[in-house]
Amino acid sequence: MGWRVLVSDDSYGNRVFVLFCNTSGFAFGPVMSFSTLLFDDDFYELYNKLFTEDPRKLDDEELSDMYSTMLDALGEVQGDGTHISELEKE
Question: pTM of the prediction?
Answer without folding.
Answer: 0.81
